[in-house]
Amino acid sequence: MSSVLETEELRRQFGRLVAVDDVNVSIEADEITSIIGPNGAGKTTFYNLLTGRLEPTSGSVRLRPRDSEADLIDVTDKPPHEIASLGLSRGFQINNVFDGLTVGENLRIARISRDGRTLDFRAVADTDDDLAEGVRDIADLVDVTDILDTECANLSHGDKRKVEIALALATDPSIVLLDEPTAGMNATETARMVELVERLDDETDTTFVITEHDMEVVLGISDRILVLDNGELIADGAPDEVLADSRVREAYLGLDEDEELEASPERGEAEETGGESA
Ligand SMILES: Nc1ncnc2c1ncn2[C@@H]1O[C@H](COP(=O)(O)OP(=O)(O)OP(=O)(O)O)[C@@H](O)[C@H]1O
């Protein structure tokens, strides 16, 4: 196995509060990894440390740059734009597309920024074949070709989330961090999103890491699950190992020793009625 991202004793305090508590993880290139934990467990802070939006109190982050078989490089004190250009991309839970532009225009901007050509006026011209081809390829991959001319303000919630993933992938990252990709989706949209992430994981060299509250999604999609509680990494393993861990059952799932995790009634009903409910 080869790791694409590693943290060593990564720590972040806000005053006396330890939001991320000396966390050691190694994200493997060929696995979909989910990060779970109760509210306030430190998931967002952890992501912010990885992307450079927050400086750690101590510890380090190492990343394998895109297009590279080389060793991981230390990105601990690098600014967010540099980490992003090295190959770590993040899709935001809060919509981060330009609403007044079309899907195609948004993808074009993402490709231009990947190429470091924001000051190249040729990059905005329609005649730039490479750029147009790059946009078409990403659109085909993420299945947003039929909405390329749609203004983002007019997209459904599900399509907007797809466009965010397309934008994250447009920079050819080695790793993409997704924040609750199924948040606010009904059962049908959720199933489609899970399928999409699994397919992209198969068809690209990009490694996917997600945070997610929906345990059905987590168990369905993950090769590996990391569990944070009060900033501490309390479990790290395959879904069945993590589900069997007594600390996880108590801290996060609220299950007794022998209790099984079952599908929520709302989800079952939504599937039976064709996913009408949100
Ligand atoms: N900028 C900040 N200043 C002070 N405390 C903060 C700050 N950001 C986060 N915290 C605290 O750090 C802890 C971890 O918060 P974080 O948002 O990382 O958790 P989370 O797992 O993402 O929660 P949720 O699932 O609710 O989004 C919480 O106690 C939170 O109040």
UniProtKB/TrEMBL annotation:
<dbReference type="InterPro" id="IPR051120">
    <property type="entry name" value="ABC_AA/LPS_Transport"/>
</dbReference>
<dbReference type="Pfam" id="PF12399">
    <property type="entry name" value="BCA_ABC_TP_C"/>
</dbReference>
<feature type="region of interest" description="Disordered">
    <location>
        <begin position="255"/>
        <end position="278"/>
    </location>
</feature>
<dbReference type="InterPro" id="IPR003439">
    <property type="entry name" value="ABC_transporter-like_ATP-bd"/>
</dbReference>
<keyword id="KW-0547">Nucleotide-binding</keyword>
<dbReference type="GO" id="GO:0005524">
    <property type="term" value="F:ATP binding"/>
</dbReference>
<dbReference type="GO" id="GO:0016887">
    <property type="term" value="F:ATP hydrolysis activity"/>
</dbReference>
<dbReference type="InterPro" id="IPR003593">
    <property type="entry name" value="AAA+_ATPase"/>
</dbReference>
<feature type="domain" description="ABC transporter">
    <location>
        <begin position="5"/>
        <end position="255"/>
    </location>
</feature>
<protein>
    <submittedName>
        <fullName>ATP-binding cassette domain-containing protein</fullName>
    </submittedName>
</protein>
<dbReference type="Pfam" id="PF00005">
    <property type="entry name" value="ABC_tran"/>
</dbReference>
<dbReference type="InterPro" id="IPR017871">
    <property type="entry name" value="ABC_transporter-like_CS"/>
</dbReference>
<dbReference type="InterPro" id="IPR032823">
    <property type="entry name" value="BCA_ABC_TP_C"/>
</dbReference>
<keyword id="KW-0813">Transport</keyword>
<keyword id="KW-0067">ATP-binding</keyword>
<dbReference type="GO" id="GO:0005886">
    <property type="term" value="C:plasma membrane"/>
</dbReference>
<dbReference type="InterPro" id="IPR027417">
    <property type="entry name" value="P-loop_NTPase"/>
</dbReference>
